[in-house]
Specification:
The chain is an alpha+beta fold and 344 residues long. The chain has helices at 3-9, 12-46, 52-60, 65-77, 88-96, 101-113, 120-128, 133-141, 189-205, 210-215, 217-225, 251-313, 318-338; strands at 144-148, 158-161, 166-178, 235-250. It folds into 2 domains: 16-130, no CATH class; 143-290, Band 7 domain (Tetrahydropterin Synthase, Chain A). Strands 1, 2, 3 and 4 form a 4-stranded antiparallel beta sheet that branches.
Length: 344
């Protein structure tokens, strides 16, 4: 049966439904075509090798086709696809992993132009590790200068004391370039700043006089540079320059003065302790004297009792008693004349 007869045989409502479905199908087709035709033309004109169906499937996989197309075009135009096996699927995988696809491609282009050994696998690994791979490549081409200490941390100078006790305040500028091979797992700028600061403090501390540091500041930078401070870091130290050195106070003299004052306080404390011991000993002797006097008074109080007992026992006569009183009176007189006060 001809198609015209089949359509004529269908009800009017069915014809309207079929026409509506066909209209929506055509509308969806044109919408998809209008969305991706520009990107497909770009891919076709640049030999990017991305088909129209791949563009549609990218959206289904929640991949931004614009980002992938531009990155692939950049890689093809720069000749990266002839050196590294970068496929469209690799770009999509890196995008889905949370990587910055345009940044990685730009870093590879910059590395290729600067003859830096950087491949696709290493670049995407650095990017997924959270490092800015493009900035790393730029730092490899144009070394970066780092202030030591970091002014953002609030520390204005590196304070170190020479062997003669003079405080020196210094500032250094460290020129570094990125070591691409150690960028993954390598220490950051903070480690470089800390190591350089430690090296400068040690070098100044080993110097016999602060005058030697002022006369030859390059001696400090050379000593620090030869210590291999860039080990296990993401950077290679190109140079260390002492930007400024200021002379501070005499720490050695202040420490000696503080030590002398501390020794004086210790001596005073010991002297005070001895004085307290002597005072306590003196009070103890006074107490012993008072005790002995009390015992003498008690002993003298027993004399009349003994005399009375002697009278009762008839061991002592009246004449003997008067003779004893005469002896006592004579003794008191002699003591009064001599001024000893004995017998009072």
């Amino acid at each position: 049966m001809p198609n015209s007869l089949i359509l004529a045989a269908l009800p009017t409502g069915a014809l309207i439904g079929v026409a509506a479905v066909l209209f929506f199908v055509v509308l969806i087709f044109f919408a998809i075509f209008a969305r991706y035709i520009g990107l497909w033309i770009q891919c076709y004109m640049t030999n990017a090798g991305i088909s129209f169906l791949q563009l549609v499937l990218m959206s289904i996989r929640r991949v931004n086709p614009t980002v992938i197309v531009r990155a692939k075009i950049t890689a093809v135009q720069a000749g990266l696809t002839e050196i590294y096996p970068i496929s469209t699927r690799d770009l999509e995988s890196h995008y889905l992993a949370g990587g910055n696809v345009p940044n990685v491609i730009r870093s590879l282009v910059a590395a290729h132009r600067a003859n830096i050994d950087l491949d696709w696998q290493t670049a995407q690994a650095i990017d997924l590790a959270g490092r800015d791979v493009l900035e790393a490549v730029r730092t490899s081409v144009y070394p970066k200068v780092i202030d030591c200490p970091d002014p953002k941390k609030g520390a204005g100078t590196l304070d170190a004391v020479a062997a003669d006790g003079i405080l020196l305040r210094s500032r250094a500028r460290v020129t570094v370039r990125t070591n691409i091979r150690q960028l993954i797992g390598g220490a950051t700028e903070e480690t470089i700043i800390a190591r350089v600061g430690q090296g400068i403090v040690q070098a100044i501390g080993k110097t016999a006089s602060y005058k030697m540091v002022l006369e030859n500041p390059e001696m400090i930078s050379e000593t620090v540079l030869n210590q291999g401070l860039e080990a296990q870091t993401a950077f290679e130290i190109v140079s260390i320059d002492i930007a400024d050195i200021d002379v501070g106070e005499n720490i050695g003299a202040r420490l000696m003065a503080d030590q002398a004052e501390a020794d004086m306080r210790v001596a005073q404390a010991k002297a005070e302790q001895r004085r307290a011991d002597f005072t306590a000993r003196e009070q103890e002797m006074v107490a012993n004297v008072q005790k002995n006097r009390a015992e003498v008074v008690l002993a003298e109080a027993q004399v009349p009792v003994a005399i009375a007992e002697a009278f009762r026992n008839q061991s002592l006569g009246l004449v003997d008693y008067y003779e004893l009183k005469n002896v006592q009176a004579d003794t008191q007189m002699r003591s009064a004349i001599a001024g000893t006060g004995v017998g009072k």
